[in-house]
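Schema walk-through. Below, the input block comes first and the output block second. Nothing else is stored per chain. Lengths vary across the set, and this one has 234 residues.
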Amino acid sequence: LSKKLHRLGKDSDCGQVKKWHKSIINHLYWCAVGCASGAEKVSRWKSILNHIQDIHIHSDPAFPKCLHRTRVSKDPNKWFKPGTAALKRLERVLTTKRFLRDVEKLSPHYQTSSLESFHSELLRSAPKNAVLPFIGRLCRLYLTAMHYNENADRPRKRPSNGYPLLFPEAKNGGHPGKQVKKEPTNFYVFNLIHLVFTEVVHDPQPFVCAVTLIDVPQDKPALDDAVAACATLQ
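--- output ---
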């Protein structure tokens, strides 16, 4: 959607789309988070076409009026005029049947950036190209989970010279400030060492038994054995 709005805003008769680009994207996220049903999401989404014309009362009973408070605009020229070519072209972009079906199925859950951070951390401790035994890889997975859980919500730095600016290509010239987090901690390591010396060293048998109870998958057969097995079946 953002790419379509960006292309549309480049046309000479659709300059107003640039002013509303970010607001339309924010409205899409708001529809996903604040609605209980798919029909309500679609109704709220369509209300943006009235809102950009300075119309805040809607005919759809699922969303009869905008929720923001009434205020006087400082820029009356930002509103779209009814029947203009720019409004018609924008309406075609926002209300295609395919896109409305997607709006109806929008997920209210957060984006997966935190999950991607965990996967990135996991690939550093247990890379896919490293040949590791099952128990060894499982232990690395547990260590990664402990490291991530301890540092996922660590506080942010407040640098004296301000936050560094980023210029990602997807922002089309936008420059958000990057909030830098404090250095990660490793207190879980001290807890593990304390556990080893206070419990495991003195009585290792319960921990050995717990490891033996792990359901370890069977090793894959060697290539020659697999070929021989196929030959016997024929």
